[in-house]
Amino acid sequence: MNNGYKLNIIDHSVHGYEIRCSYHTKSRDDHRTVQNSGIMLVATTMQVSSVKDKNPVIGDMSFYEIIEDIWEVSYNTLNTVLFKCKWVENKNGVRIDNLHFTLVDLSQIGHSSYSFIIATHGQQVFYVSDPVDPRWSVVVRPPQKDFPYKCANDDLGDMWPHYPSISK
After folding, report:
1. C or N terminus of the chain, fewer CB within 10 Å?
2. Sign of CA dihedral 67, 64, 42, 130
3. Are 70 and 85 in contact (CB under 8 A)?
4. pLDDT at residue 135, rounded to an integer
């Protein structure tokens, strides 16, 4: 860190961060009617069925989490945004129901030694309480906003998108 190198960390936990959509921390969502702290990471990983499995399979695996902190890290000219998350443990905390909905138990925390992800690697999700068993939450994946739009803050700090008008 000597010799003129500069490290700067900005905490965005209070106001959130925008990358394709608005992300906020769980502590901020607890006081709001909207939810922007759910995130999902799809990773390509080697999967085995047991210790004795001699035919591992490379495939995509989804990880679900709640954003605890949002940090913008700057090191000289390199800038990146990191989400510090509480991950749902995949073995006992994620299941698929008979209607093919993904359900997560947000109290089943795992992967604690890997709590950070690069913000652009995640996809926003929402968690809706399962009416049959409130311990479980249904994962809802909204359409990802890959189109340009402008947002304006209202008095409460909520983001309201203003989409460009379509002209002929």
Report:
1. C
2. negative
3. no
4. 94
- Residue 146's pLDDT is what? 53
Residue 135 lies in a domain: yes
Tokens of 120: 């652009």
> Could you give the CA distance from residue 40 to residue 121 in angstroms, rounded to a whole number?
9
Q: Which amino acid is at 102?
A: T
Domain boundaries, position 125: 7-45+56-162
Per-residue pLDDT reduced to its tens digit, 27-73: 676 677 767 778 899 989 888 777 888 888 898 989 999 888 888 88
Query: In this structure, is residue 35 part of a structural domain?
Result: yes
Collapse the DSSP code of 162 into the 3-class scheme (helix H, G, I; strand E, B; otherwise coil) and give the result: strand
35, 127 Cβ separation under 8 angstroms: yes
Distance CA 79, CA 21 (A): 19
